[in-house]
Amino acid sequence: MRIVILAGSNRKEATSTKLGEYAAHIIRQKGDEAILFDLYKRPLPFYSPDEAALEHEHLSGLMHEMLAADAIVLVTPEYHGSISGVLKNALDHLGQAHFNGKVVLAASSAGGAVGVSSLLQLQAIVRNLHGVNAPDWISIGGLQRRRFEAGYDGYEGGQDIEDRIHLVVESFLNLARKLSRAI
User: Fold this and answer.
1) How deeply is 146 buried, as exposed, middle or buried, from its count of CB atoms within 10 A (0-12, 13-18, 19+)?
2) Distance in angstroms (rounded) separating the CA atoms of residues 86 and 7
3) CA-CA distance, 97 to 134, in Å (whole number)?
């Protein structure tokens, strides 16, 4: 299967992007293809319904990758109880054709304990785009974020969050495989 991971931060060393990279690593270990589309490295123009930006290199690349995806992972930092602006902008550029019937896993990295508000918002957006929300999500916050920061030193508890991420990604892949066979 081909999984696209859309990393929705515009920060160079974002823990949310590193979480997406870790999910990609797990997906590849399971024998599937993982494509990380990093919005920091490949910024998109601001969405406007009045202006078509299809000729924009990064936007056309994102649209191509999302159409070719069998399943999707959306990763965001949580800013002020919401998803990042760059991820929302990317999602505004996309439509139902990019999500219809595809399993979507939501993941967040929050400065506080958890990023539930951003995850709930992502799931509402996915429903509106006719995607299939994975029943689990990944939320890292507080000390769990250290696992994805530069200079990670193997702090106590790092294995617990890694185990949780593995479990959620495996569940996501199993659901995506079942649905892709049913179509």
Assistant:
1) middle
2) 9
3) 18
Answer whether 0.70 is exceeded by the pTM: yes
Tokens 């078509």 belong to residue: 52
Closest CA to 24 of 35, 16, 10, 37: 35
Q: What confidence category does residue 156 fall into, taking pLDDT thresholds of 50, 70 and 90?
A: low
Displacement of CA 9 from its chain's centroid (Å)? 10
Residue 89: how many CB atoms within 10 A of its CB? 17
Q: How big, in percent rounded to 5, are the helix, strand and coil portions of the chain? A: 45, 20, 35
What amino acid occupies position 79? Y
Digit-coded pLDDT (tens) for 106-147: 999 986 666 789 999 999 999 999 999 999 999 987 667 667
Query: Domains of the chain by range and CATH?
Result: 2-182 (3.40.50.360)
